[in-house]
Amino acid sequence: MKRQRSEAAAEMAATSEIRSAIEELSLMAVNCGGDVQKQTSGRVPLKPFLSICNLLIQVLDKIGPTMAVLRQDMHQNIERLERFHDSDPSAYCDVVEILKKEVSEGRAKKGPTCSKSFVWLTRSLDFSLSLVQLLLVDLGRNMDEAVEESYTATLKPWHGWISSAAYKVALKLLPDSQTLVNILKVKDQDHEKLKEEMQSLIALLTPVLEQNKEILKIYGLDKLKST
What we know:
Elements: H1 2-13, H2 17-32, H3 46-63, H4 68-87, H5 95-104, H6 114-137, H7 143-154, H8 161-171, H9 177-184, H10 191-218
Helix pairs in contact: 2-3, 2-10, 3-4, 4-6, 6-7, 6-10
């Protein structure tokens, strides 16, 4: 019995955020009835989606206070969606149902809404995915260049000058590539195994984010900008 507990503890300790995200994304694909590589169900189960976002927050926590701006923004958006879900869990277990309600009431774009939270959480994950894709090609890549490229492709088009200035300062404070790699992998994991997991994450997360973007386009939320 003690040996079983010891093995279970060791297994938990060897679980990285990437591995946990792979598990969540695989489960999301199964629950949606979609192919793992081709997620076309038109549904976004709220809890699994927020679990993936929370895993990104855990990575930001490991990076430290330099990522406080991005972390706070994500945390507020997650909490907003959770509160809406808690108001009627049976009705709002899917993000699309929340969007439908806010859009039909004409308030999706007014104030701090769940619709906006979904927009920015999707974009934050999109930025993270872009960064992982660049690191997969070269784990030793210059982080300033990688962050700038990912930011320009994903977040910059939607940021006003205030948000752009704040985020660019925060993103410049990311650790070097080796430190980030050590944060992403589990203890004693070699680079090739980490790359395999990064590839699996990319393959699973890409169709989910593409679907999210299509949903936002359908509800007229894909062009929302910050100040």
